[in-house]
């Protein structure tokens, strides 16, 4: 919703002379949305067929702790789906979006499960057979570099008007600014530490730096995704919730706090398939 693309245009009332550089601000039909929750809500209701407020999880939107300012360019030739645009926005704050069991659009932040108390315990008696498996294992992150304040169109110095200052020429010549955060202790402790780069819709360098720090602090250890089938689990779990998993296998004898990534309910067998992260 900011910065022009090649397909954008505007009328000046007379023929221009020379080159013109313009910043665009868009969609002010009911206030200018500039946070993840506000833009997601606007996209979903204007273009995604979601009825506001009946099909909005109002508590989740109001409680989303993501006040970072951001922008999103949505041009007339944009081929991305609403789902892709929402994912782009929520990825920019390390968040997620989906629908509740009763069909309301909801969202949340992908934070460490250790920072919240578990709402449900899952023990060996709940597991069906020996279904518990590790489906993904990620090496620790020692450095994160976050791209922010992105431009839809990068312009070289000779493509800009003569009156554009030198610092602005440098600005328009780069796709993104980058905010890094690193933990060299993590780098030294592990054999294959990861260096991750993310491109976001964030505007402010402080917000980008905070996101980089959040990622390193959250993922500066080995993280895994666990999958298992649970008996008597219908209506017990929801994505984003924190649970405590205990099992005699995989060194889980004393239990581990995990966040629910995915819930697949099988009403015919009254069982649930869970993907857990932590």
Topology of helices and strands:
Blueprint: H1 36-46, H2 58-63, H3 82-91, E1 95-99, E2 105-109, E3 120-122, E4 133-138, E5 141-148, H4 166-172, E6 177-182, H5 184-189, E7 194-199, H6 205-219, E8 223-231, E9 242-245, E10 256-266, E11 271-277
Parallel strand pairs: 3-9, 5-7
Antiparallel strand pairs: 1-2, 4-8, 5-6, 8-11, 9-10, 10-11
Helix pairs in contact: 1-3
Give a quick precis of the structure.
20% of the residues lie in helices and 25% in strands. By secondary structure, the chain is an alpha+beta fold. It folds into 3 domains: 1-111, no CATH class; 118-138 and 222-277, Elongation Factor Tu (Ef-tu), domain 3 (Beta Barrel); 141-218, no CATH class.
Structure, explained:
The protein has six helices and eleven strands. The protein has 278 residues and is α+β, with helices and mostly antiparallel strands. The chain folds into three domains: 1-111, no CATH class; 118-138 and 222-277, Bacteriophage T4, Gp27, baseplate hub, domain 3 (Elongation Factor Tu (Ef-tu), domain 3); 141-218, no CATH class. The strands form three sheets. It has a six-stranded mixed β-sheet, with no helix packed on it. A three-stranded mixed β-sheet has the order 6-5-7. A hairpin with a 5-residue loop joins strand 1 (95-99) and strand 2 (105-109). Helix 1 (36-46) runs antiparallel to helix 3. The protein is flat. Residues 1-6 have low confidence and may be disordered.
